[in-house]
Write a structure and sequence with these properties.
Helix 1 runs parallel beside helix 3. By secondary structure, this protein is mainly alpha-helical. The chain is 43% helix and 0% strand.
Length: 69
C-alpha cells in the first residue's frame, strides 16, 4: 500500500478489516511510506491514527531502508 491514495469509503473498509482482525488473527502489511505519511493515503487523521494504533499493538515491525532492486 502507499502508492495510490484510498477514497473515504476504501479507507473505512480497510479500517473495518483491520479492526475485525485486531487481537484475533495475524495481519501482514507492507507499505512504502513511514507511519507519519499514512494520512496522505487514508485522508483522515483520526482514522489513520486508529488504524496505526491497531496495527502496531503487539506488532513486530521490520523496516528496510536500503535501495529497492
Amino acid at each position: 500500500m502507499g502508492y495510490v491514495p484510498f477514497n473515504q469509503t476504501g479507507s473505512e473498509l480497510l479500517f473495518n478489516v483491520i479492526a475485525d482482525c485486531y487481537e484475533q488473527q495475524s495481519v501482514i502489511v507492507t507499505f512504502n511510506l513511514e507511519f507519519g505519511q499514512w494520512t496522505s493515503i487514508f485522508g483522515d487523521t483520526k482514522l489513520t491514527s486508529a488504524l496505526v494504533d491497531r496495527l502496531v499493538h503487539h506488532a513486530h515491525i521490520l523496516s528496510f531502508t536500503s535501495d529497492s532492486f
